[in-house]
Design brief:
With 103 residues, the chain is mainly beta. The chain has one domain. The chain contains one helix and seven strands. It has one helix spanning 5-14, and strands at 19-24, 30-42, 47-54, 60-66, 70-77, 87-94, 98-102. Strands 6-5-4-3-2-1-7 form a seven-stranded antiparallel beta sheet, with helices on one face. Strand 4 (60-66) and strand 5 form a beta hairpin. The chain starts with a helix and ends with a strand.
């Protein structure tokens, strides 16, 4: 399937509460997680959509940001009761290189 911002957003909205897999065709990047939340952020001049994936590993979370040309992923590791993440790894996947599946 050829993905774009709208089709990926619809996929995540229809799979809220379910486990999904995100992969990049040209790399070894693979993320499996439960779609925990999808929110719409009003940035005055535009609207941004974000989704949160819950991973099975405690303390790890992935936030997805739906941009026009890329899906931005942010892997975040935080200790319980900590305001600052221990680790923050951003990565972008172009929609034409994206594979999204329900598990």
């Amino acid at each position: 399937m050829n993905w774009n911002k709208e089709s990926v957003l619809r996929f995540f909205q229809s799979h809220e509460g379910k486990t999904v897999s995100i992969r990049e065709k040209t790399s070894r990047i693979k993320i499996h997680g439960k779609v925990a939340d999808i929110c719409e952020l009003d940035l005055c001049s535009s609207t941004l959509f974000e989704a949160t994936l819950e991973l099975q590993t405690a303390g790890l979370q992935v936030t997805l940001t739906f941009h026009n040309d890329v899906l931005a992923t942010h892997l975040i590791s935080a200790l319980p009761n900590s305001r600052n993440p221990e680790m923050f790894i951003p990565y972008q996947i172009a929609y034409d290189q994206l594979i999204v599946e329900s598990i």
